[in-house]
Structure formats: structure tokens, C-alpha cells
Amino acid sequence: MDRYITLAVIVLAACSSDQPPASTTKAKVRVTGIPDENPTELQRRHAPLVAHLATALDADVTFVPVTDYGAAVQALAAGKVDFAWLGGFTHVQSRRLAKAIPLVMRDIDRDFKSVFIAHKDAAIASPADLRGKRFAFGSKSSTSGHLMPRHFLSTTHKLDAAKDFAAPPVFSGAHDATAKIVESGKVDAGALNKQVWDRMVKDGAVDTNKVDVIWTTPGYVDYVWTARHDVSADLRKAFVDAMLTLDPDNADHKTVLSLQGGHRYVPASPSDFDAIEAVGLSTGLLK
């Protein structure tokens, strides 16, 4: 009998040793953001947030760079990323294309603004003086660098961007690039995200002896963290919780928030972007 018991123990031990160990592989979460500034600045700005999300979600979080605004929308629609930092206009594009879901936005994104800037040698004191001048927008899909400035040119200043400049407007591709081509004199004026302009002035990245702000737009809703429509409800909730609990009184959290440009994150809902969609349709930029 003892011989059979010993044999059974050996067999059970062998079977037990064949069982794979419990998986310790973390979930993989991919995030991206529209390239509204140069890639180096974008990576710097998102690195602390990626680290925060990795801890909060207990996941392997990767930032996936994209080449342009449209690529961010396509990456979300194609399932290549799970969450994307989009502008209001690219969010609307992504929800129309792929039913993307808005999650959270910075407190400043509920009242965002653009600035119109002009080279001091161009004799432009206000938007009324832009007629017949050379003008630059940012990306064609930028909310604060194209859509809303174009909208305000038309509705507030009665200027048609397709007809009233000296030539068709230049699209620089990014906010900081707009500031630099105005500074260089390649164009007379341009429009960009006020937050980027303020940071460039603070950092000495633009020569204010050459460039002036000539007008600041009214506020509108802009940037938002957006989820792919088929990301699980649990993961979406965990992401939202990770963002809403960022506390400016916590030193690590303050670093994340300062690089993201806000004081806190607040919930976002689809209806927040209905006005942006209406502007996109009225300008013909959204089909």
C-alpha cells in the first residue's frame, strides 16, 4: 500500500510541475496625441502622464507617435491605439468615423482661445488689416489653429480665408511652427493656440520684438482625451479615474498637470462637442 501511495504522490507532483505559472503579463495600453507641436516637445509633455497611467492602470502604457492630425484619428479608428489626446475638431471627426467616446478634458479646455499674431513690419493692427496679407494656419484639422480662427474670421471680421488674403493660406502643420514662420516674415500673420503662444513667450522661444498679438478669440471647447469605442467600460472608467484624481497639491501629479497645461481634469460628454461639429459643417471643413 505504501508503494502505491508513494507512486501517486510522485505522479501528482509531476502533473503539478507541468502547470504553467500564473501569468504576470500586464495589459498593454496604447495612447497617442495629435502632433500639435514638434515631436520632441510632444514626447516631453506626455512622458510623466504615461508613467502615471502605467501605475494607475497597472498596465504597460506606450505612447504611439503619429505623423499628423489625420493619422491620430485613423489610429484610433483602426484599433492601433486605445486612447487619443485630440482637439475638438479631430474628436468630432473620430466620433463620426468610428464612434469614439470623449472621456476627460483639462479645466482650461472648456474656455479655450486662439490668438492672431502679426509681424511688426506688416502694418497689421487688427484682423481688419489682414485683407491682402499673407496668412498661416496650423494643421488643417486643428481646432485652435484653423477651424475656430477661420470661423471667427468669417463671422466676426467678415473675411473669407479662401479669397481675402494675398494668396491661399499656408498650413504650417503645428502651432509653434506658425509662430516661427510669422516671426521669420515668410507670412505676415497667423493664428495659433493661445496656450502654446503664452508658453513660447514665457520660454523665450519667439521674438516678441518681431511679432505681436493682434487679437484673441472668444472661448470655445477644445482638447479632450478620447477612447476607442470598443475599449471596455472597465478600462475607460479606470482611465477616467486616473485623470480625475490628479491632484495639483501632490508633487508628482503637479508635474503631470503642469506639462499637460491644466490645473485639473474634468469629465467630458458628447454634447460638449456639438458646437464644434456645427462649426465644422458650417465652414465646409467637415463633410
Tags for this model:
D-Maltodextrin-Binding Protein, domain 2, 2 domains, five-stranded mixed beta sheet, 10 helices, disordered N terminus
Q: In what range is the share of β-strand residues? A: 15-25%
**Helix fraction bin:** 40-55%
CATH architecture of the largest domain: 3-Layer(aba) Sandwich
Task: Figure out the total of helices.
Answer: 10
The termini sit apart by 82 Å
CATH topology of the largest domain: D-Maltodextrin-Binding Protein, domain 2
How are the SSEs ordered, and which strands pair?
Blueprint: H1 2-18, E1 27-33, H2 39-57, E2 59-63, H3 69-77, E3 83-86, H4 88-98, E4 101-106, E5 114-119, E6 135-137, H5 143-155, E7 170-171, H6 175-184, E8 189-193, H7 194-203, E9 211-216, E10 224-227, H8 233-244, H9 251-260, E11 265-267, H10 274-283
Parallel strand pairs: 1-2, 1-3, 6-7, 6-8
Antiparallel strand pairs: 3-10, 4-10, 4-11, 5-8, 5-9
Helix pairs in contact: 2-8, 2-9, 3-4, 4-10, 5-10
